[in-house]
Specification:
The protein has about 120 residues and is of the alpha+beta class. The chain has one domain. The chain contains 5 helices and 4 strands. A 4-stranded mixed β-sheet has the order 3-1-2-4, sandwiched between helices. A hairpin with a 5-residue loop joins β1 and β2. The two termini are about 35 Å apart.
């Protein structure tokens, strides 16, 4: 019975919260989206921020000077595998992301940006 109680206690504990920010650099303006997430630690939060920045990049893939795979294959005269490597390298150069441990002060500081906090009451 103790084992079950411990599991229930773990289920009821909240994961630590972090504020992640993400966007694209250069003419895209850098980080402009922030949200509060649950993560196991700061590294996990940074990974979530990175993933969000990658999603943002993919929204603009092939537009506004961000080359898609077809453009890379044609312009650089490379096969698809090489084009994927180039695409990944180019994407990395555009990504901006950050993670902070959650604090009310940091949330207030970032409230002027696009800021989502699904845990706010």
């Amino acid at each position: 019975m103790k084992h079950i109680k411990k599991f229930e206690e773990i289920q009821n504990n909240e994961a630590p919260r972090f504020i992640i920010g993400y966007g694209l650099g250069g003419g895209f303006g850098g980080i402009h989206n922030y949200e509060v997430v649950e993560a196991t630690d700061l590294e996990d939060a940074e990974t979530q921020a990175y993933d969000k920045a990658c999603e943002e990049y993919q929204q603009y893939d092939g537009m506004y000077g961000l080359r898609d795979l077809d453009a890379i294959m044609e312009e650089d005269d490379v096969d698809e595998e090489e084009a994927e490597e180039v695409w990944n390298e180019e994407r990395e150069g555009w990504l901006d992301y950050v993670a902070y441990p959650y604090s009310d002060e940091k949330a207030e500081e970032l409230s002027g940006y696009h800021f989502e906090n699904p845990y706010e009451k």
